[in-house]
Amino acid sequence: MSVIRKFIDRCKQYNKVNENKNEKVCRCFNVCSDDIKNAVTKGAKTISDVREKTKAGMGCGRCNASVERITYKAIKNR
Length: 78
Prior knowledge:
The chain is mainly alpha-helical and 78 residues long. The protein has helices spanning 3-14, 33-41, 47-54, 64-76; strands spanning 24-26, 31-32. It has one domain: Orthogonal Bundle (Arc Repressor Mutant, subunit A), CATH 1.10.10. The protein is built from 4 helices and 2 strands. It has a two-stranded antiparallel sheet. It is elongated.
């Protein structure tokens, strides 16, 4: 298996976060899905607001898709 294929497969694993189980979303800053939901509950209105409050997605960037998905769902369910 090529190095690129291994990298892509590893990145896909980070997007498989089950936000209903309060799983860790951002490994760089130790942010769980509930931390993101709480940021929205406390007033975050955008992805940028969530990143500012939690730092999720501001390290390596592998969790950005999960952070965005969880944020959008939390805003929609507000």
